[in-house]
Amino acid sequence: MSRRDFQHGLVIGKFYPPHLGHEYLIRTAAVHSQTVTVVVMGASTEKLSIAQRVQWLRNAFWDHHNVRIVGEIDDVPVDYQDEGIWQAHVEIMRKGIRQAAERWNPQPPVDAVFTSEPYGDRLAKYFECPHVCLDKARSLYPTSGTAVRANVAGQWHMLSPAVQAGMALRVVVLGAESTGTTTLSRELTDALHQRGGIWSRTQWVAEYGREYSANLLALTRSNDLQATASDIAWESTDFVQVAQMQCRLENTAAARGGPVLICDTDAFATRIWHERYMSAGNAAVDEIAANMPPRALYILTSDLGVPFEDDGLRDGEHLRSWMTQRFRTALVAQTVPWIEVHGSPKSRCTDALHALDQLIAQQWAF
């Protein structure tokens, strides 16, 4: 019997969260179908939103132009013995197919259902088409959504870079000049590395603004060899570039790292630095900050008891207390959990690690 390929393949599931087994299913359907519609179906009460799951899968399949991924809320209970419940689920699938047709273009009727599940045979009957069952025994990709939810860190290797980037807990250290943000963020990264296993993949994202400041100082000194950091003529566009690059560096690191990403600042902090240098906010920087992936924790480094170190790029010793208070005010006004650390570098790292461990337990409790 010859191999059969299809015009319109259908893949459905909760994808809670998407893992390599799901992506294998979609990838195989894409190879053997002219078009594949993927319908992400999940309850409105689930911790990961439908929009997140859809976006992660679209990121994973950005170069598969025949794969169309949509999402639909499905609050219908699961009962494989109840015909009425089956019909309700199938109608949601058909709604997803219609959504894909409206978003892209209409396709022929579904002529193949791709699953790895025992229910696939019955599902295919509703679409009057064959069921292609792949890796039902989970021998190629030994995982499941249930297994990932039960142990995200232990199943991290079963998530694609696109999903890892979405699920990584992004921890941001911020503070005024010379308050130990870089020291603390590096020490946190080292402490996670020492735990071994998947934690050894923890990435650290450097502060791009520091590199940018050094570049501006070099440009300023091309006209005046005696110029210092206070002579740099900052413009709002500089902060836009810094915020954009900081986000790019962060997203790149998140896609290749472990379950936690340690960041030495982010675009939220860039907003405050714009205020400090330009005496006002900036809509473009605000928009970049508003569109960042979710933050898991902010750690503010106190300026109290920390000597100011002039490294040639700093010029705000007299503003450190004001900056610290401005960060506090901004952090109180937003919704991401945050802590302020004080004392010695060791004490700060201990307190930050404690908060991080609590965060891990809470964020991944599905």
Question: Globular, elongated, flat, extended or rod-shaped: what is the shape?
Answer: elongated
% residues in beta strands: 15-25%
Mean pLDDT equals: 94
CATH C-level of the largest domain? Alpha Beta
Major sheet: order of its strands?
Answer: 3-2-1-4-5
Look at the helices and sheets and give the structural class.
alpha/beta
* CA radius of gyration: 25 Å
Number of domains: 2
CATH names the topology of the largest domain as Rossmann fold
Q: How much helicity do the residues have?
A: 40-55%
Number of helices: 13
Order of helices and strands: EHEHEHEHEHHEHEHHEHHEHEH
Question: Which stretches of 5+ consecutive residues score pLDDT under 50?
Answer: none
Largest sheet: 5 strands, parallel
What this model shows, in words?
The strands form 2 sheets. The chain has a 5-stranded parallel sheet, with helices on both faces. It folds into 2 domains: 6-150, Rossmann fold (3-Layer(aba) Sandwich), CATH 3.40.50; 168-363, P-loop containing nucleotide triphosphate hydrolases (Rossmann fold). The two termini are 45 Å apart. The chain has 13 helices and 10 strands. It is an alpha/beta fold. 44% of the residues lie in helices and 15% in strands. The longest helix is centred in the first third of the chain and has 21 residues, at 83-103. α9 packs parallel to α11 (283-290).
Question: Topology, pairings included?
Answer:
Blueprint: E1 6-13, H1 20-31, E2 33-42, H2 50-60, E3 67-73, H3 83-103, E4 112-115, H4 120-126, E5 131-133, H5 145-150, H6 161-167, E6 169-175, H7 181-193, E7 203-205, H8 208-221, H9 236-254, E8 260-264, H10 267-278, H11 283-290, E9 297-301, H12 320-332, E10 338-341, H13 345-363
Parallel strand pairs: 1-2, 1-4, 2-3, 4-5, 6-8, 6-9, 7-8, 9-10
